[in-house]
Amino acid sequence: MSKMLKVLIVDDDAVSRTVLKTMIHWESAGFYIMEDAHNGNHAVQLIQKETPDIIITDINMPGLNGIGLIEYLEKNFPQISIIALSAYDDFDYVRQSMKNGAMDYVLKHRLDASFLLNILNTARNSIHSYWNERDRQSNIDKELTTSKAVLRQTFIRKLLEGSLSDVEEITGRLHALDVKLETENLMVTIAEIDDFRLLEEKFSSQEVDVVLHTFMEISKEILKDWEKSVIVHMAKGKFAIIFSLGPLKSTMYIYNTLYTILNRVRSEIKKYLNITACFGVSKVCTELTKLPQAYNHAETVLRDKFYKGKNSIFIESTPHKKDESFFCLDIKDEKAIYAALKNQDEKEVKSRLDVIFGKISSMRLGSKSTQMICAELINIVNKICKDTGIEIARLYTAEDIPYNLIQKYETLMDIKAWVVNLYDKLISMLRLMKLESGLSNITKKAVEYIHRNYSSDFSLKDVADFAGASSSYISRLFKEECRIGFAEYLNHVRVEYAKQCIENGELKLKEIVSSVGFNNYNYFFKVFREVTGMTPLEYEQSCRK
């Protein structure tokens, strides 16, 4: 259904206005009378509040007459269709009104319903043609703007990648694409969204695109404060920003000003997107053709993220070891860690891990070397599991391959936290096994049943039937041998599995409640706090940190 067109009637004679308003059934014909005015001045006041599509105006009126109104409309509202009315068959009026923009001129004594409808339909066709042309032009403008933006991004990427080398060609394209950069004294910054791979796993591709687009728009808005700069999305969660420095000032001034701008970007993306990013800043680049070297330098500087952590701005880089010179665990360290694990000596294990990761940091080893060392640490865990009969599946979720997991982390701090957490889990299981080693066969069977079925709803009688004893006997044995009641032991087991689920971060808290065997969230909340000393939400936040 087409849109109803708004009509304004302008005539100093009230009877004439009434005749026009009652001559046809306006709404049935697709029009409605929004207002009527008694002269041109009154009409201007109404138009400024709401713009009509069609104006039917008398020519002879006191104050601002029809000719004056038509001149005003042609200058300020050329899109309005105008129909001029007069009681006089005067050629000068006709010529003047048509010259100034009236689409038709009608003598009042000749006007009837049929004639009025014909004129209105002609006006409607003219208005629709105007709208279609306006929309077509708007679409063309949007396509041109989008196309130019895409060409600009492609050009900047090629410039940074070193695909362009001719200075005249580069300068010409800078001008043609309206890229606000000078040809000398430039600086490149690489912005990299932290944990982007984890972001891709957590959200759909459309949601990730929204994050990237919003990051770009926030950055563009803040970069307006720098006279000449441009930002381009390079790949995945990585962006490059080129700054024109203008006449060179002190290095300290440049870095301080740049740091202020980048820190604002960092603050705003945290505020609006709840993400963080790291920034690597190059040295000053003296000419356009050397931008690829500046880009490579910014990438080198950004590698400090691996050692210094996320949500940071890096300006000076620290020399890195080449990944080819692998550093392996000393056989003495392997044996010492193995022995400490067997003895459940948590303090010694953490001390050894601190030394190993401290060595990685001080030697500035690359990510590949670090992954090799972590693979050896994982092998120690797997060997302990094999020697003690612990199921490895209890340490990792079904989908996780530990060697792949460590590759997802971008900083040494995150990798170390993952390894330490893995060792903590193993020590907890070894302690549980040590407890179970002194149990009678019946209690061992009861414990086995609990670990196999903790996610289900079962009773003490179910456990007693499996162990081949009465419920009262099982209950008494539990208190004697485990020094803890059956229900309390079950809750401890369920909380331990809940902690693992929270650490993995794959399920929401309400999903975890049922997956570990609790039927009531409030009860789960209460038990979790009793066992761990913190609420599930507090534990989740501590894991994120």
Structure description:
The protein has 545 residues and is α/β, with parallel strands linked by helices. Helix content is 60%, strand content 10%. The chain contains 23 helices and 10 strands. The chain has helices at 14-23, 40-49, 66-76, 91-99, 113-161, 167-176, 196-202, 205-223, 251-273, 291-302, 305-308, 331-342, 346-362, 367-388, 402-408, 412-437, 441-453, 460-467, 471-482, 486-504, 509-515, 521-532, 536-544; strands spanning 5-10, 31-37, 54-58, 81-86, 104-107, 186-193, 229-235, 238-244, 277-281, 313-314. The strands form 2 sheets. Strands 2-1-3-4-5 form a 5-stranded parallel β-sheet, with helices on both faces. Strands 7-8-6-9-10 form a 5-stranded mixed β-sheet, sandwiched between helices. Strand 1, helix 1 (14-23) and strand 2 (31-37) form a beta-alpha-beta unit. Helix 13 (346-362) packs antiparallel against helix 16 (412-437). It is elongated. The protein starts with a strand and ends with a helix.
